[in-house]
Structures are given as structure tokens and as C-alpha cells.
Amino acid sequence: MIITELKDINEIYEQIKPYSKILIAGCDGCCQPPRSLNEAKVLGQLLELKARTEGKKLIWKAITVLRQCDDRIAATTCRPFAEEYEAILSLACGLGVVMMNKVIDNILTFPAQNSHFGGVQNSSENFYIEYCEACGDCIIGETGGVCPRAGCAKHLSNGPCGGMVDGMCEVGGYTKPCAWVDIWKRLKKFNRLDLFKKYRGPRDFRLSTSPGYKDIYKEYTNEEEKKEEKV
Amino acid sequence: MAKRPAYSNLCKKIQEGKFVITGELEPKKILDLSEILHGAEEMKKTGKIVAANVTDGPQGDAYMSSLVPSYLVQEKVGLEAVWQVTVRDRNRVALFGDVTAGAVLGLKNILVLTGDHTALGDHNRARAVYDIDSTQFCEMLSIMIDQGTDYEGNEIVGGKIEMNYGCVANPNSNPREPEVLKVGRKVEQGVDFIQTQTAFDVDDAKDFLKELEQFNVPVLLGIFPLKSHGIAWYFDNYIPGVSVPKDLLKALKKAEKDNKGDKKGKYAALDKINIEFFEPFIKEIKKSTKAAGIHCMAVEYERLFGPLLKDF
Ligand code: SF4
Ligand code: SF4
To answer: What pLDDT, in 10s, does the model give residues B169-218?
Structure first.
């Protein structure tokens, strides 16, 4: 799931301020916490109030999209409204906002959210934690299933850094466990300190996601998909 | 890997079997280097200090780069520098650029560090780099020095990099095992020496040194003389993982109180406390461990070197 956070209401309002008729689109995809029809309605009400305090009238409609990051779904759901509204406010993650801007290209779509990372639902934790940063070259087979790229504040391949105290990371005021101490504990438990001792060479940043110079081919190309649809 | 020749005085002295002492200089948010150079001169005068470390943005703060002060300490004072380079702010391209520049300036020692995270420093919104980690930087330096190429194998033209490099080990690490194993990975890359963080507990330091013996690399144990009660208190409270012995803290406080208004008297009393604590400490390390020497982080406290080191 993609962990997101609503932007400050003033920041959202500043983006849509030039428009008087907006479409607010929730997303039923993998946004966490959920940002669906209800959330879109609440946001509409808040923005309407905010506009009223400035002596303006804001007309809005709330809808929700199954997945804004899927071009066909986004287009079929939203295009029917695109003529009527001056702008779209999206409650999806950044991917959804980008896709909406692509498929509905007669008006602009603005983000209502900040997107953070791909996260997990873990009921034993009070926070969403970034366990994987999608580095493109997974090494957690060598690190006991604990990721040092997402989990270590210095992204070390050969940690720990020496800054940890009582197993806690120097970043964040010693409140988070040092990923490399966790890795050591895991590998020790399974009698695999051979993996801990192993030297890992420099990372190939061409495999990383940002900036986006990486293309992953789909197993089916669009042409093949279209052919199949015709059959 | 065949042992690298000793290019630096520091490594030559270690190879000769001398018990070596290194000092430390800290360029901060400054343009005027006169205090740094003065500190280096004081160290040189004692005749006991082989080389001085020049720090690279400790605590993640934005300070003057260590390259030029390292050069000036060698050039103007004639004291060898241990040029500290962290991987926090430079990617492998910039590190290559700096190391070759340092080589041209005649720097002979690099101390490889990960570096305190930018999140701890005074520009905590900055992007921390950490393109390669300190162990990978060790590998890169070995390739540059021993094979004369960059990290990707492209030839460096017009000479040879004649440098030795060291890494750091932290005796205060808890748990200690992953720290020791990590040092092992760095040693494998070909480090010439190790300098440790601060130790106050002599027995604990001895244990740590014993653990490092397996790597067969010269180790300089770090000590941190306490210039004032304020510094000691700060160290005790704000430098995580390090605790200053309570008796030492108390003695420093008393010395400052008893000598209020008498600067000379205060200095003498503080120096006496430090000498009484660290002299036997160093003697014990020299006598009963295989340590190659002491890294004395008496930053801006150079007057202590003469009296503290008179017997070494
Ligand atoms: S190494 Fe870490 S960041 Fe990379 S893919 Fe594996 S879990 Fe994700
Ligand atoms: S303390 Fe551990 S998790 Fe934090 S930066 Fe250092 S090695 Fe990484």
C-alpha cells in the first residue's frame, strides 16, 4: 500500500483557489489511510467553508475512482465530468495524480496529498514504516529479511555505522532500532553470521527509481493485449 | 593483499614499533585558520605528536572542508595531517576528485568515516549523500592507491597516489559484536591503521583492543582530555554512548569552583586532574595491550600535550 498524508488545508486551497468549480476524486486503490468517497466529501465541505470565509462560492462534486493509477479506469470514471469542471483535486497518491493529468488533459489535476512510501499494515506497530524503498536490486536475502536500504538512515550496505547506542539509531533521537543491529540479531539467530561478515560492493544507482530513468517492460505489451481483446 | 608500503610518517613510525600519538584539530564555521595553525604548532613543539587529525564536519554541521586545513597544517607548520573524509556529503565521483586533489597537495593519511548524519547537524533539511559507505570507500582507496585506477578501473595518469588510510572503531558500541565484525570487513579492504573513538574505562578499552587484535592492524586508542567541567558535562550528557566517570566530573567541577577568578590556578588544577587520570591510563594501555598508540582528541587544549606526554 502507498502511505499518504493529507496536505494542509490551506495548501490545498491555494492550489484550487483560481477555480470556482472543482471535481474532487477519491481513490479506492492502495492509498493508506483510505481516501475514498467519504473523504472526498469531507474535503469538499472544508474547502467550501474556507472559500466562504473569503467571500467566494466554490462548487464541487465528490466522486471516487477504483484506481487512479490505471489509465483506463481513471479515464472512464472521470472523463464524463471533465467538461463540466474547471479542475480536479485528487486524493490519490502521486501516481494517481500523474495518471489523471495524463488521461484528462483538458483540465489540470492537483494533489491533495503528500505521498510517502510503500508501506505495510502491521497491527503491532503504531506507525507506518518504510520497509522497502524499491531499490531495484533486492539484497535482503543477505540481511535476514531486514532491509538496510530503507531501514538504515545512511543506506549502508556494510553497517552498522558506529553511531548506534544500545541498538538504537543515531537518527531520530535513539527511538528507532538500528537496522544493522536488527540484521545482526536475525543472522545470529539463524547461525548465518557468514552473511553478516560478507562485504557488499557499491550499489548500482542506475537500478534505482529516482530520477525515473528505469523502464520495466510489461510481460504483455499493449499491442498484444489489444489483439487478445479482439479475439 | 600484500602490505602496502608506509607512505606517511605516521605509518612509518608505527612500522618502526614506536608508540605513536596523534592529535586532533577541528576547523569549524571559520575563514581564519590561525587558531588551527597555532594548535598544530603547539602539538609540533611537544615533539611527541606524529600527526594531527583534521575533522570533516563533525556532528553533521556545515564546517570548513578538511582538505585545505590539512594541507596548511603540513605546509605551514610541518606537522603531518590525518585528513578525515566522510562519505556523508560526497558521492564516489566527488570522493575521487577530493582524494586525487589531496594527493597532489601532499597529504599522506586519510581517515575514512561514515560521518554523523546531516539530520543531527545544523543543516538538518539537507540531503545526506551516502552514495558509497565507509567500507566501500576503503575498497575504493585501496584500488586508487595500489592499482592506480579509479573505482571503475580507469587509469589515473601522471603519478602514483602515495597515501595510507585508516578507519574508525567505536569501543562504546552496544552491542559490540556487529561493530567488531564491521571493522573486520573494512580491514579486509586493506586499511593501514585504526583510530578509535573515545574510551574512559581502561578495562573496557583493553577488552576492545583485545578483540581487535584478530585483525592484525595497528590500533590507536582514542582518548578525550576534558578541558573544562562544562565540556565534560556536555560530553557525558549529550554524546550518546559515552559516559565520563563521575569522580572525574566532580573533580573538574571542584577545581573550577576553588579557582574562581584565578585563570592560571584553574588551568593548573584542571590540567593536573587530566594528567592524573590520563597518564596512568596511557601507561596501562602501552604496557598491557598491543595498541600502536593513542589518538588524543585534546581539541583546543593543546597546552596539555607537553605535560601529559612527557614520559611517552
Ligand atoms: S533491498 Fe530493500 S529497498 Fe531494495 S528491494 Fe529489497 S527490501 Fe526493497
Ligand atoms: S545507527 Fe544503524 S540504522 Fe542508524 S544510520 Fe547507523 S547503521 Fe544505519
So the answer is: 999 999 999 999 999 999 999 999 999 999 999 999 999 999 999 999 99
Question: Domain range for residue B60?
Answer: 9-244+281-308
pLDDT digits (tens, 9 = 90+) for A130-140: 899 999 999 99
Interface test with B, best of A139, A142, A149, A154 (most B CBs within 10 A): A154
Of the candidates A87, A37, A107, the residue with the CA atom closest to the CA atom of residue A65 = A37
ipTM of this predicted structure: 0.93
Who lines ligand 2 at CB under 6 A? Answer: A 152-154, 156, 159-161, 163-164, 169-171, 178-180
Q: Note whether residue B249 is domain-resident.
A: no
What's chain B's average pLDDT? 96
Return left, alpha or beta for B189; rule: phi > 0 is left, psi -120 to 50 is alpha, else beta.
alpha
CA distance B174 to B143: 32
Number of structural domains in chain B: 1
Which domains are delineated in chain A? 2-117 (3.40.50.2300), 131-199 (no CATH)
CATH number at residue B110: 3.20.20.220
